[in-house]
Amino acid sequence: MFTPQGPTFRELAVQALSSVEHGYDLLAPKFDHTPFRTPDSVLRSVARALDRIGPFGSGLDLCCGTGAGMDVLRSVCRERVTGVDISAGMLGVARDRARRSGPPVAWVRGDARALPFGPAFDLVVSFGAFGHFLPRELPGLFSQVHSVLRPGGTFAFPIGAPARPGSRDYWTLLGFDAAMRVRNAVWRPPFVMYYRAFRLGDVRRELVRAGFAVALHPLPEFGRRPDGSPRCRMVVATRPD
């Protein structure tokens, strides 16, 4: 799962015993060499899907991390793109790796639950960050995204189908979430990272409550499950005009 350039077990343990913000500050230099980074195949698939419904003016990468999703924005946005993240360490790596061509780029340190912007964006994307928010935080998070979009703006992100009960992935994710709950019960500060808490039904309901019109776009590159449902979708939530 990890390349030789990735973090050691000891480094991961230190990160896991830190807060989310400080943990990612520590992990930032090696984050791109871990399985936690969104795969390029997902980024390319989302970029193709957005290209079909774009182009867009200005874009925001919510919880941008080391900036992998910023390349998606730069491919579909004409004006400017912004990355926001709570971790100064992750933003530092993102600045260093950013491409110099394309629309202007800005990097902002901020909390996704209290975004420091007005309604300035036509597109907001996010990749792999929602496990860091508890289910009760989704209404506030989606309201924040709604508030920074211009009328007619789009909030888009990929979401995978849940693991089949009894499968290896199912037990792996269940075990990881259980370990995180035990860790947070006995150690402070908490490190919120739950892979099974972000469920499509809940997400769709809370997006509608926040004022979005919601559509689902299958990402065909990832195929379909035996029951015919897509293995991965792009959620497209639109702020009405």
Write the layout of secondary structure elements.
Layout: H1 9-16, H2 20-27, H3 40-53, E1 59-62, H4 70-76, E2 81-85, H5 88-97, E3 105-109, E4 121-125, H6 138-148, E5 149-160, H7 168-186, H8 200-209, E6 213-218, E7 232-238
Parallel strand pairs: 1-2, 1-4, 2-3, 4-5
Antiparallel strand pairs: 5-7, 6-7
Helix pairs in contact: 1-2, 3-4, 6-8
Protein name: Methyltransferase
Keywords: Methyltransferase, Transferase
Pfam family, one: Methyltransf_25
Can you offer a commentary on this structure?
- Residues 60-153 form the Methyltransferase domain.
- Keywords: Methyltransferase, Transferase.
- GO terms for molecular function: methyltransferase activity.
- By secondary structure, this protein is of the alpha/beta class.
- It folds into 2 domains: 1-36, no CATH class; 38-162 and 199-238, Rossmann fold (3-Layer(aba) Sandwich).
- It has helices at residues 9-16, 20-27, 40-53, 70-76, 88-97, 138-148, 168-186, 200-209, and strands spanning 59-62, 81-85, 105-109, 121-125, 149-160, 213-218, 232-238.
- Helix 6 links the parallel strand 4 and strand 5 (149-160).
- Helix 1 packs antiparallel against helix 2, helix 3 (40-53) runs parallel beside helix 4 (70-76) and helix 6 packs across helix 8 (200-209).
- The mean pLDDT is 88.
